[in-house]
Amino acid sequence: MFYREAGQFKTSYKQYMQAFPIREDRIGIAIWLAIALFYVPFFGLPGLEYTFAMNAIMIPVVIFTITAIGLNILVGFTGQISLGTGAFMGVGAYACYKLTTYFPDVNIIIIILASGFVSAAVGAMFGLPSLRIKGFYLVVATLAAQFFLEWCFIRVEWLYNYNPSGAIEVPQREVFGLIVTGAAAEPATRYLMVLGFLILLTIIAGNLVRGRVGRGWMMIRDMDIAAELIGVRPLRTKLSAFAVSSYYCGVSGALMVFVWLGAAEVESFDVNHSFLYLFMVIFGGLGSITGSYMGAAFIWTFPILMKEMGKRLFDIDPIIMENVSLVAIGALIVFILIKEPHGLARLWQLVKQKLRIWPFAH
Amino acid sequence: MKDTTQGYVAEDGRHIGGVMMEMKNITLRFGGVVAITDVSFDIREGEIRAIIGPNGAGKSSMLNVINGFYHPQEGEVWFRGKKRPSMPPYEIAEQGIARTFQNIALFKGMTTIENVMTGRQLMMKKNFLWQLLRLGPALDEEVKHRRRCEEIIDFLEIQAIRNTPVGSLPYGLQKRVELARALAMEPKLLLLDEPMAGMNVEEKEDMSRFILDVNDQYGTTIALIEHDMSVVMDLADRVVVLDYGKQLADGTPDEVQKNQAVIDAYLGVEH
What we know:
By secondary structure, chain A is mainly alpha-helical.
C-alpha cells in the first residue's frame, strides 16, 4: 500500500539505472538523511544521554560503517577475504599522524583523504598474494600483514614521533574555524564531520559497484575463470579491490583516531578488531552497502544497548552484562547465519519484497 | 571432399567466406595423457562449424585451445591470417572470441542484465575517476552499453527475467543468458560448448533458432560442440569428427554421415 512500483514509469535507461529506482525508497533515504543531519547532532538519541549517545554510539558507528563498506568491497564484492582490516586502519591513522606532523597547516580533511592513499598502497601490496592463493591461505597471508604491521606500529618509533608512551596523540586541528580534532572539539562537530565522510564514500562505493569496476569485482568473485575468458584481468581487478578497500579502511582508521579516540596505541588496530569488522560485514550482508550500514550499527550498538538495558531494567552489573552480551552476540551470529546466510541486508530485502505485493502472498 | 580453400556456398545458399581460424596439427597433452593428437581443421567467416565425437574425444579441449585457455604442445593456431602466439585468455577475448560453457559458468550473484553487461566489460573504456563519479562520460557509456544489452535481451526473448538473479533461473534460461552474455561481447567467433545439453525438445528448437538467427543477423561465425546429431546435421555447414583425440573426418554433414570411419567409431560397429 505504501510501497509500490506500480505507476512509476521509467522512460530512459538513466532513470532505470539510478541507485533507488522506487520512489518510496528515495523518500525513505531522504528521511534517514534528515534524521542523521538535523536531529541527531542536536538531540542525540532518544532515551540516552547526549554526550554518551554521540561519543559511544553515533560517532563510532559512522566510522565503522566506512570500514565495513571498505571491507565489503573486498570480501562481499570481490570474494577475497582479509583479516588485516585493523592493521590497514592503523596504516591510515599513522599516515594521517605523520602527514599532519609534517604539514600542520594543511586542512585536516585533505590530510585524512590523503592518508587513505598510503593505506591503499599498503593494502594493494599485501593483496599481491591473492593472485596465487585463495580462501584460507589468503586469510593466512592477510593475517601476516596484520601482525607485520602491528609490529611496525610498536617498533618503528618514527611512526609515533618517538613518543615515550608509544601512542599517537592527536593535535588540535580546525576546519573553517571549527575545532574538529582534539579534546576541545564538540561532539556535534565531530559527528557531522565523520558523517560527511561517510556520505561521500557511500556515494562513491555505490557508483563503483554499479559500474564497470564493480562488475569486474563481482565477476572475479562469482567465477574467476569465466571472468578471465571474458576479458577481465585478474591482477588489475583484484589489486584495485584491495586498494579501494584499504583506502576506505585507511580513511576510517584516521577518522577513528583523530575524530573519535583522540589518542591511540597499537591495541586499537589489533586482530580482534579485524574480526569485529569481518563480523559486521558478514552479519550485515556480503555484497551489500546497505548491509554494511546495518552490520556496523548492529554489531557495535548491540552490546552497549544490552548493558544499558540490563542496568536500567534489571539492575544487573554492567560487567556481567558485557559478558552476557558477548555470548548473546555470538549465538545471534550463528543463528542468523544459519537462517539467513546473506545477513541483515537480505532480510530487509525480503521485507520489502513482501511489502510490494502486500496484502497478497504472490 | 568439397574443396573449400576459396570459400564456398552453403547448402542454404549463404556465402561462406575465407578462412578465419586455422588449427594446424594441434597436439595437446596433459602429462602422459594425450587429449588431442595432430588435429587440423579450419573455421571460415560466417560459417557454423560443428565439432562432434563420443565422450572424451577431446572436443572441449579443442574449444579450450581455440579459446586460449589451453596451450597446445605442438601445432599452430592461425587467426585471421596471423599465427597466434600463446597469450592469456583475456587478450584472446579482446580479439573477438567469445564462448559459452558446458557446465554453465554464469556469475551467480548477479542479475540477468548484470550478467549480460559483463560482456561489455572490454568495450567500456572510461577510467576509474569517471567510474567513481558516475557522471557525464561514464554514465553515457553505461547507458549506451545498457541499450545494446537490452537489444540482445530482446533478441533472445529473456526480457521477463531481466532483473532476476541468475542463480534462481531454470537451466534452459541460464543457457540462454549465457548466450546473451557471449553475444554482448559482439564476437567475431562464437564458441558454444554443448548449447543444448540437458534441454527438452522445445528448448532445443528455441536454441537452434537463436543460433541460426545469430549467424544470420550478426554474421557471427559459430563453432559448436553438440551431442544431438539431428541438431548438428541441421545446423552445421561443416562438421569435424574427433575420436580419442584423433581426427576421423571433416566435411559437410552428408559427407560425414557417409564416412565409414565415423560410422564405425561414432555410431558403433556392427557385429
